[in-house]
Amino acid sequence: MSHQRPAFAEVGLPFIIFTAIWGSTWIVIRDQLGTVPAQWSVAYRFVIAATAMALVARLKGEDLRLGRGAILPALFLGFAQFCVNFNAVYLAERHITSGVVATIFALLLIPSTLMAWAFLGHRPSGRFVLVGIPSERVFTVDIHTAMGKELEIQTVKRSNNRGHEAIELLASGKIPDTLITHRMELAHTAEGFEMVSGYKDGVGKLVVEIDW
To answer: What is the model's pTM?
Structure first.
């Protein structure tokens, strides 16, 4: 349905494209070996990628200039990530299959996280998401445990872009009117929001009626 398209276009489609490009990269690397030295393969691969990314950034109006304080970190990151790292990847594929190299490369997230903790003090943390409206008004959290694990607590009250579907169900009569406890005119919208946010007057579902 149409309400699902934004979620797919914003999340699903980019994920599929990224996975397909990243996954096929390992096959391309394997085909490049023996044609030119690994160092040249890495060089022209990232020259093309950097040029394309710079063009996209400029089209989006991004500023590509780096401040003085960012030049040295950028040089270090470029040397470590795109010189040493990928030269090692290309050389590794001379001896083991591309699938194994891809798997090991994907698992680098774990040592990278541990090294960030050890050298930068970025301790691994987690996120707790509470979806929907709980029946209890008071939600108890062990604050010491949450702080010790550096948990990020997030609440989600939305309905995943299903507003149009809900309207269609209401219009079709498939949802009984008993779910709607209050109705208000458009002029009293602010009062309605205050009622719903404070759970006043036993409100369940409130409908703002618009007289066209």
So the answer is: 0.43
